[in-house]
Amino acid sequence: MPAITFYKHEPIPMEMHKVKIVQQLHLLPTEQRLQKMQEAGFNTFQLHNKDIFLDMLTDSGVNAMSDRHADSGRRLRRVGDLLQDAGEIAGAVRH
Predict the structure, then answer these.
(1) Distances 12 to 3, 5, 66, 79 between C-alpha atoms, Å
(2) Which tens digit of pLDDT belongs to each residue from 41-69?
(3) Which of 41, 52, 82, 83 has the fewest CB atoms within 10 Å of its CB?
């Protein structure tokens, strides 16, 4: 990783990439945010990414990310959607 220097002439590592991803953020109304937190037992690790406006605890991808990171997240969401659909189908078949 290349380094740059500032006025103290100490090398500072610099990641050589630009952020290219822009996504619209959705801020849930206060009542819904409180409901989501209560449903998660006030455990922030149990909240879903779509319900979080600004994640200052884990930096879990709600903020900027590389194109490879974003692509892997999209693939995981597709897998998650498929698993959710499979669970709904299995539940419907059982009833």
Answers:
(1) 5, 6, 20, 38
(2) 999 888 887 888 776 676 555 555 666 77
(3) 41
pLDDT tier for residue 31 given thresholds of 50, 70 and 90: very high
Structure tokens at 48: 């879903």
Alpha-carbon gap, residue 4 to 44, rounded angstroms: 36
Asked if residues 37 and 49 have their Cβ atoms less than 8 Å apart, the reply is: no
CB 64 within 8 A of CB 19: yes
As a three-state string, the secondary structure of the chain is CCEEECCCCCEEECCCCCCCCCCCCCCCCHHHHHHHHHHCCCCHHHCCHHHCCCCCCCCCCCCCCCHHHHHHHHHHHHHHHHHHHHHHHHHHHHC
Distance CA 66, CA 30 (A): 31
